[in-house]
């Protein structure tokens, strides 16, 4: 998706801009044309280059702290280098370099706000990168990259270091830098003027200078060398929460996509697991069938283990019930048969309990029968007693203790 690239020019509110693929329009673009254009359907990122002369790039050796504690410590670490009250400054940082230093960018908060005011409201949520122009110059280790821009020069001295200066003062300043850093081997000069700067650098610094003609607009040139993942992004802290929500939306989309992929993988894993378990179950059933026929050779069909256990329990329960019935009959029959004046009309047996329909000459005889059964170790009780003519009818309920 094409990005919108914006270069803010100085402090007068002017700027240049173009959408990737339309680089030719950069030379005629203005802040007015940016604000008048409708950006409602624009879906790309917004990249902003700000004047290097308004951003102070430095570094400090700080202990490894959490990001919150590190941000609190930075103003005190560089306050001696900054010419204004640190309370009025915005600080951005990058990861530690190999020597243990933390790269730091310092810019006045009012200037940051003024730059962002130049951006249409509909684009502010899409800003993903804001860096000084100098950090978009091509750079390699042990090399200084210099861009000759009118009466000024942009100088990139390290991955996250550089400055903008008037050309008249450039050579003297680089001589001081060279004394502090003798590892510099080459100077790469990007120029569109064809002036004497190449000769001055060669004569005073005694370093090879590789001059490269720069024939396109600076905004287009910078955009070709920009690293969208540049670590020293000014959109940090309060400015990150206000102006980089678009990048958060992209992260959310990535997260949702990854979640969907994981869900598909888990589903595939579940299907594979089911297939494996199904195969193992089939193999176990085969082995169980072989063992079953070895144990029960007369069986034509295989009964599963659960069915066989249930059948065995039913058989045991039935045998137990039959045994209870026989014991009740054996204990109770001498009393019921040998009691004069007592007639048995019927009997049922269920749940280890026997109910006997009786007729007797009187109630006392029924009580005597129950007492004799209890004496033989049974639980016996007469129920539903009623007199019918000259006889008494009752239901005798008895069971084993």
Question: Main attributes?
Answer:
Nucleotidyltransferase, domain 5; five-stranded mixed beta sheet; Gyrase A, domain 2; 401 residues; four-stranded mixed beta sheet; 3 domains; alpha/beta
Task: Tell me what you see in this structure.
The chain has 401 residues and is of the alpha/beta class. The protein has 3 domains: 4-243, Nucleotidyltransferase, domain 5; 245-302; 321-400, General secretion pathway protein M, EpsM (Gyrase A, domain 2), CATH 3.30.1360.100. The chain is built from 11 helices and 16 strands. The strands form 4 sheets. The chain has a 5-stranded mixed sheet. Strands 2-1-3-7 form a 4-stranded mixed sheet. It has a 4-stranded antiparallel sheet with strand order 13-14-16-15, with helices on one face. A hairpin with a 2-residue loop joins β8 (143-149) and β9. α5 packs parallel to α6 (197-205). The longest helix has 51 residues, at 245-295. It is rod-shaped and about 145 Å long. The mean pLDDT is 84.
Reconstruct the topology from this structure:
Elements: E1 4-9, E2 14-19, H1 31-36, E3 46-50, E4 56-61, H2 67-78, E5 89-93, E6 101-108, H3 109-117, H4 121-124, E7 127-132, E8 143-149, E9 152-158, E10 161-166, H5 167-180, E11 186-191, H6 197-205, E12 209-213, H7 218-225, H8 238-243, H9 245-295, H10 305-337, E13 342-350, E14 353-360, H11 363-375, E15 378-388, E16 391-400
Helix pairs in contact: 5-6
